[in-house]
Amino acid sequence: MCVFQRVEKLWETIDQLYLEFAKRAAPFNNWMDGAMEDLQDMFIVHSTEEIHSLITAHDQFKATLPEADKERMATMGIQSEIVKIAQTYGIKLSGVNPYTNLSPQDITNKWEAVSTTLP
User: Fold this and answer.
1) Mutual orientation of helices 104-117 and 3-40 as an angle, nearest 10°?
2) Element (H or E) spanning 116, and its range?
3) Quick check: 61 pLDDT over 80?
4) What's the sign of the alpha-carbon dihedral 62, 66, 72, 75?
5) What is the DSSP letter of 92?
6) Cβ 99 vs Cβ 21: under 8 Å
7) Using 50, 70 and 90 to split pLDDT, how confident is the model at 1?
8) Gap between the terminal Cα atoms of the chain
9) CA 75/CA 103 separation, integer angstroms
10) What is the mean pLDDT of residues 52-80?
11) 4-34 residue pLDDT tens
12) Which of 57, 102, 110, 117 could pair covalently with 39 via S-S, beta carbons 3.0-4.6 A apart?
């Protein structure tokens, strides 16, 4: 395999990883947007049963966070793989994923916002 073919293969791999990042980041970002909205909602309650219901729902939400964190880590792992390939083979990345406007920093910032909003 000539050098050009090797470089072309690396770019194909990076392109596939960019696509995979975009496919995972978009739904995860939507979930975080929904979670932030839910966490910031104001509730008007008229009974202790409603309060208990909200507490139960919140506890159920918190129970989903470890799985969400696994998804975040998997998504960020894709980005790490892109950077690793680029560094290993001296490839200069543009810094822009052609498949999404979401950056790894966007995911990190939103995750931190969701995490710090929890009581």
Assistant:
1) 20
2) helix 104-117
3) yes
4) negative
5) P
6) yes
7) low
8) 56
9) 11
10) 95
11) 788 889 999 999 999 999 999 999 999 999 9
12) 117
Torsion on CA atoms 89, 95, 100, 102, rounded to nearest 10: 120
- Structural domains for the chain: 3-117 (1.20.58.60)
Question: Which two three-digit tokens encode residue 54?
Answer: 């909200």
The per-residue pLDDT for 6 is 84
pLDDT at 20: 98
Q: Residue 86: its pLDDT value, please?
A: 94
The whole-angstrom separation of Cα 1 and Cα 56 is: 59
Give the Cα-Cα-Cα angle 48, 53, 57 (nearest 5 degrees): 150
Token digits of residue 28: 């995860």
Query: pLDDT above 90 covers what percent of the chain?
Result: 79
Given a contact cutoff of 8 angstroms between Cβ atoms, the answer to whether 99 and 19 are in contact is: yes
Token digits for 113? Answer: 């916002």
The pair of structure tokens assigned to 99 is 């498949």
Q: Whole-angstrom Cα distance, residue 110 to residue 72?
A: 11
